[in-house]
Design brief:
Length: 591
């Protein structure tokens, strides 16, 4: 493509001023067969660049075990084919409403610091990843024009030597395009996150002129850029669906461009947090130290291109603004992906209790004086069964789970006794001894932002009977990725009462295409179709169905597995075509 550099006031391509009109699109939240369509949607909106994070934990789920590190490179090739430049944000921390902010669960402590126990694994990871980026830089004929150092570090820490070490590492591994940082426009964030000699950018959702004025107090020169214009937002389980007015978003974009700045829409297309990779936040205001708020599976984000890849009203309003900065007429959006032909009911004819699934696909059982955490059991996403004996004879006393993260379904002598959370950690009925207690503890998503990023999951403080610790805890973990196939699990006829466990069945499809899976009466769990994990469902809402990308389905018989963690209805799940656009919103053609 040419030499991309940072000038005194502009970005330069072979010495010619250019403006980056970028949109965020995460390759890991879109089925690979649909990358080309989504990138074409960005082009049709008027963008000339795509931005993506790279989640370390997706590609190195266990220390030294790397999975499909070539995927970012394939995505960058697709961006080049679509005629887009690319900004890569490799972290190692990315936030992104992604589990643990992209950091592997096995990094226990010292993260986002200069501690060598953190930096050594980072260096090993970057040595694996960066060849996919370096070989596709603009000065080598590829689309990559910029690489970001860390991510919003000024919201977390103040040790400028840590991001400086990362910048040195990126350069030593072959990154020659400009480096940048991104932070909120507050003074303490820019002070903590920016680096001398590295382009500083800011993230915000409104008040562009004030944000850029704050940036100029720290950086009098260099191009202005909003690295994240928050044109939508994300949802939490148990909350409402968050939207941002299309006209308001367009007005903020116009203000940014009138300032002469470059921009990256976050998100241009959100996609879906498949396979249980959605993260979580902590409430409690600016301290982010309050109750857990897990993110839903959908990452629609109220983005201009919706979860199903269709243009929204916001798409057309932003396109109108961007068209004024295009060098020629904008291309029309590609046709939307074909929807599923007809509604199809899932027939579930096999069942395995949770204990049988754990026995077949779980990790080794361990016995410890105190409950081990998920991290100690090597579980990133999934469930851990803790078992403990209440000695007896003894009178009934309260049973309390200290430091529970995040949710436990409790059984006493095989009978369901209740559901506990970190905010409601004591069983309603006291427990008498002698008794056998089982606690099936589930991670609802690791915190991805704030001071509690990296906190452990599971039972982190012990089990108390009255005020006495219960020792000799037996624990066994079941990772979600252990169920990407069901080989070796013994199935029986379904019980007919919606009992927790793994259900197996089929759905017959005539005319595969984009679909939604409805799970009426189901409470909480995960679904796989043809071995592809669609993500978590939960009756808590607001999300009521799971998106099924058309490429996942095949004409004829498709395998379906439903892992239910609680008692639910025996009503059959069903596939239906993706829903029609909301009333008054044409998502297929320009209004």
């Amino acid at each position: 493509m040419g030499e991309f550099t940072v000038g005194d006031t502009d970005f330069l391509l072979d010495g010619r001023p250019v403006r980056l009109l970028s949109g965020a699109l995460h390759y890991f939240r879109v089925h690979e067969a649909q990358w080309g369509h989504r990138l074409a949607m960005l082009r049709a909106m008027g963008l000339n660049c795509v931005e993506t994070y790279v989640p370390w934990n997706l590609h190195e789920p266990r220390p030294g075990e790397f999975r499909d590190v070539a995927a970012p490179g394939r995505f960058l090739d697709a961006a080049r084919e679509a005629g887009l430049w690319a900004i890569v944000r490799p972290g190692p921390y990315i936030c992104a409403e992604w589990d643990n902010g992209g950091l592997p669960h096995w990094l226990t402590g010292h993260t986002r610091t200069r501690d060598e126990r953190f930096l050594r694994p980072v260096e090993d990871w970057f040595r694996r990843l960066l060849p996919e980026v370096v070989s596709r830089q603009a000065d080598r004929g590829g689309p990559v024009v910029m690489v970001q150092v860390e991510n919003e570090y000024g919201s977390y820490g103040s040790d400028a030597r840590y991001p400086a070490r990362l910048a040195e590492l990126l350069r030593s591994l072959g990154v020659t395009v400009p480096l940048c940082t991104s932070d909120g426009p507050e003074d303490h964030m820019l002070t903590g996150g920016s680096l001398p000699g590295v382009l500083a950018t800011v993230n915000f959702g409104s008040h562009a002129r004030e944000a850029f004025a704050s940036l100029r107090r720290h950086r009098p020169g260099g191009p202005l850029m909003c690295m994240e214009l928050w044109c939508g937002w994300f949802d939490h389980w148990g909350g409402g669906h968050v939207v941002r007015d299309a006209e308001e978003a367009a007005a903020t974009l116009r203000e940014i461009l009138e300032c002469g700045a470059s921009v990256n829409l976050y998100m241009a297309h959100g996609g879906t947090s498949f396979a249980g990779w959605a993260g979580a936040n902590r409430g409690g205001g600016e301290m982010h130290d309050g109750p857990l708020e897990p993110d839903v599976t959908s990452y629609d984000y109220d983005a201009p291109v919706d979860e199903y890849g269709r243009p929204t009203r916001k798409f057309w309003r932003l396109r109108e603004v961007l068209a004024g900065y295009a060098e020629g007429p904008l291309p029309q959006p590609p046709p939307p992906p074909a929807p599923l032909g007809d509604r199809a009911e899932v027939r579930l004819d096999g069942f395995a209790p949770l204990a049988a699934v754990l026995e077949a696909r779980g990790g080794p059982e361990v016995t410890c004086p105190m409950p081990p955490t998920f991290e100690e059991l090597g579980v990133d996403r999934g469930v851990v069964r803790y078992e403990v004996t209440v000695p007896g004879p003894r009178r009934p006393y309260p049973l309390t789970v200290r430091g529970l993260r995040d949710l436990a379904v409790v059984y006493v002598d095989g009978e369901r006794a209740g559901v506990l959370t970190e905010d409601d950690d004591r069983l309603g009925e006291p427990v008498a001894g002698h008794a056998r207690v089982e606690l099936w503890v589930e991670s609802l998503g690791r915190v991805n932002y704030g001071p509690r990023t990296g906190e452990p999951k599971g039972i982190t403080g012990g089990l108390l009977h009255e005020r006495q610790f219960l020792h000799g805890v037996r624990a066994r973990g079941l990772r979600l990725d252990a169920l990407d196939d069901v080989e070796g699990i013994a199935f029986q006829d379904p019980p007919g009462d919606g009992s927790p466990g793994l259900y197996r069945g089929t759905v017959t499809v005539h005319g595969p295409g984009d679909a939604c899976l409805e799970l009426p009466g189901r409470t909480r769990g995960f679904v796989w179709i043809n071995g592809f994990n669609l993500g978590r469902y939960w009756s808590a809402g607001p999300q009521r169905s799971l998106y099924v990308p058309g490429p996942v389905l095949r004409d004829g018989t498709n395998e379906v597995w439903v892992l239910e963690f609680e008692q639910g209805s025996a009503s059959p799940p069903a596939l239906r075509p993706v829903p029609a656009p909301a009333p008054g919103e044409d998502r297929s053609a320009s209004p």
